């Protein structure tokens, strides 16, 4: 299902987990230190699992193990980290930062969307435009997405500039009409599918 991602929600996640350039960031935890493109190695899956175990045991029990695709890109379960409190973020930072760095990833960074996901997203976008969302743009490899949830919507892509949120009748009608395409996009964004990209 498509998820509306507000700028405030994104900023809160970035502030909590990755630091922020605006305002004071001296007391803001920063998870990770690796990149979203890990080096190859037979121990990479074990390192990713160890980091994920640490994240789960220190405040995010639903966090899934990151996956590595055939090109070495690491995809993470960033969505499960969105509602952490500042205290949970700090606990994860203190306990897990060395494991995250050793595993070569950052829990909040995502590599580009792979071609199969972009193709599924374009089909969903075409359907949404045909069913009442004429401003919905085709995604590209650089379009932000959330693993397991697909591409998001920006306010300017939905009626009334997003004033009614997910409850907008036009949005709900388009989602209903395009359920098959949206479900295919979500499947293409799953960690399992991303690992085969």
Strand order of the largest sheet: 1-2
Compute the CA-based radius of gyration.
17 Å
Tally of helical segments = 7
Report the biggest beta sheet as strand number plus sense, adding barrel if it closes.
2 strands, antiparallel
> Which residues sit in consecutive blocks of at least 5 with pLDDT less than 50?
1-40
Number of E-type strands: 4
Residue-averaged pLDDT? 79
The dominant shape is globular
Give the count of structural domains: 2
Order of helices and strands: HHEEHHEEHHH
Assess the beta-strand content as a share of residues. under 5%
Broad structural category? mainly alpha
Roughly what percent helix? Answer: 40-55%
End-to-end Cα distance: 21 Å
Polypeptide structure, described:
The chain is mostly helical and 197 residues long. The protein folds into 2 domains: 7-103, no CATH class; 115-195, no CATH class. It is built from 7 helices and 4 strands; from the N terminus they run H-H-E-E-H-H-E-E-H-H-H. It has helices at residues 7-18, 44-57, 86-103, 115-130, 169-177, 179-188, 191-195; strands spanning 67-68, 74-75, 145-146, 150-151. It has a two-stranded antiparallel ribbon. Strand 1 (67-68) and strand 2 form a beta hairpin. The two termini are 21 Å apart. Mean pLDDT is 79; it is low at 1-40.
